[in-house]
Amino acid sequence: MTIYVVRHGDSLYSISQKFGISMDIISSVNKLYEIPSLVIGQALVIPTTETVYVVQPGDSLWSIGRKFGINYEALARYNRIPYPYILQVGMTLRIPEASKNFGYIEVNGFIEPSTTTEEVNTVNEVGRYLTYISPFSYQVNADGTINDIEDSAIRNTASNYNVASLMVITNFSEGNFRTELAHTILTNNDIQQKLIDNVLATMKDKKFYGLNIDFERVLPADRELYNSFLRKMAQTLHNNNYVLSTSLAPKISATQVGEWYEAHDYPAHGEIVDFVIIMTYEWGWSGGPPMAVAPINSVKKVLDYAVSVIPPKKIIMGMPLYGYDWKLPYVPGGPFAARVSPQKALSIASNYGSIVKYDQVAQSPFFNYYDENKVNHVVWFEDARSVRVKFLTAVEYGLRGVSYWLLGQSFPQNWAVLDDMFNIVKVL
Q1: Do residues 2 and 69 both lie within one domain?
Q2: What tens digit of pLDDT does each residue of 308-330 get?
């Protein structure tokens, strides 16, 4: 697989000739039929078996191997370079296809129930790339009951791909995560036990594989109470052969302040639960200033702290399947940005003749355009380059896997890159 960035003068035909791959294959892999025309700066996934690299000053076989994720000795054998592996600037190296070279990875996808048709289509499209699917969400009530959701189509379709379903419980109510709701539950042992019993009954009835607890905006003073609740839930679930996970806000230190962070005790969660999903996205969010949703420099700061207190093989890194379209100039408290899928972002760029640029620090693409009312916009989104960097980051930190928010957003390049780099763990 090669990631190719569209240049001035390129056409689908010229790109297909360049790589010796049919136009139909390139179009199918990238779903180009969803986009009016190619966009300058657009990243395309090109299925290939080999690529070529020209040795640059300062290169070594080790550095080139690391760049492409290939063992340097294997690269030497492939190019018939004898020991001590001396390279010359300008020398051409053949780089073998790196498909599946990064081993096994667990992949979770959150999904919001919609219509049966949409749910089935979404799961059919991405099911083979998933380990877990997590319908979002079963909202808990202050008396320990749970609001049921209709997710049978999701679970049943997922089972066709050996995808394990995770039940997700949240303290979400009336459009936000409710601090007082979590406090009521965490300060009452009887309510906690009722909630645990109800969760277990639902999991048995619907044949869930495990549970994800996503309690957010918990009072800092309730931190130890939350840990205690997790221990109770873990004991019950483990006694019944279920796995337990939690969703964590993206912290960069143990002392980070703020209502989203303080009650999420990374070391405790790492000790209590089977794995954690760290929500490493939403730096750029709909109500905030324009920026990348998941800038890799910010993601790595979170992971630096996380792996220092949680075993890496218990960490699943969050990844966004979307971007945002902001109107400019950004005004705090003004209109929220519209969420767009990567394919929708490219359609916008195509319609308005924009050029996609790539931020090297954030490792994320963006572009500007003026709409029909002459209002300036900026769109930050994800592409094949940005997700590959995130996958390589997961490998670099030795993580358990990745988790997507939110399935149902059209992003074919993501699944092509994921499938090219990894084998997907199936626990069923």
Answers
A1: no
A2: 999 999 999 999 999 999 999 99
Instruction: Say if CB 336 and CB 286 are below 8 A apart.
Output: yes
H helices within 357-400, ranges in order?
A: 384-396
7 φ/ψ angles, rounded to the nearest 5 degrees: -115, 170
310, amino acid identity: I
Rounded Cα distance, 400 and 311, in Å = 9
Task: Of 250, 171, 281, give the one whose Cα is nearest residue 216.
Answer: 171
pTM of the predicted model, to two decimals?
0.90
132 and 64 fall within a common domain: no
- 56 pLDDT band, cuts 50/70/90, is very high
Residue 341 DSSP label: -
Residues 26 and 89 grouped into a single domain: no
Residues 216 and 310 in one domain: yes
On whether both 42 and 111 belong to a single domain, the answer is no
Helix, strand, coil percent values for the chain (each to nearest 5) = 35, 25, 40
Number of domains in the chain: 3
Give tens-digit pLDDT for 120-179: 999 999 999 999 999 999 999 999 999 999 999 999 999 999 999 999 999 999 999 999
Q: Are residues 344 and 206 in the same domain?
A: yes
pLDDT reported for residue 3: 93
Q: Is residue 227 within 8 Å of residue 268, measured between CB atoms?
A: yes
**59, 104 in Cβ contact below 8 A?**
no
Per DSSP, which regions of 298-400 are E strands? 315-320, 323-328, 338-340, 357-359, 364-370, 376-380
Q: Give the range of the structural domain holding residue 13, as residue numbers without chain letter.
A: 1-49
Q: Are 22 and 60 in the same domain?
A: no
Structure tokens at 420: 């090219």
Q: Which residues are catalytic?
A: 216
